[in-house]
Amino acid sequence: MYENTFPNKRFKHTAEFLTKHISTDSDILDLGVENPFTEIMKQHGFKVENTQGEDLDIDTSTIENSNADVVTAFEIFEHLLSPFTVLKSIKTDKLVASIPLKLWFSSAYRSKTDMLDRHYHEFEDWQFDWLLEKAGWKIIDRQKWTNPTKKIGIRPILRWFTPRYYIVYAERIAQIPKS
């Protein structure tokens, strides 16, 4: 089903991580519009609903009104100005999220043709961990992987050894009621 090429390698690792932690009986709210990975999740037996392209920095109503058992967010938080707000608005107690890691030898991604397809944040793993913790999540499992290319040069060689993607399974920390 997958080859070891972009984005198939990323999809393979993501699907394996998701099936390790989430039952196919779970209803999933996937942040972001339907995309090729949505179809892969459905092929694996997951029931998936996507957000509809609303600006999640401004409108979190779909997240707040969802009755999903799990929220997934695959390469979405780096596009948001305020991922903290989105993380706090999630009602469910399970989250699977992945991000591209900041590479010290490469600038943040910025599409020259699509004004919305840009990375506002490219996190180091500890920064993403801290963001999740501050938003009330506890990381249960995490994984990183590289994204080698077949190009020639110093940066392509570094991509063979430097992790590019980071995925976490996190659970909501029980809120202590104030008395």
TrEMBL record:
<dbReference type="InterPro" id="IPR029063">
    <property type="entry name" value="SAM-dependent_MTases_sf"/>
</dbReference>
<protein>
    <recommendedName>
        <fullName>Methyltransferase</fullName>
    </recommendedName>
</protein>
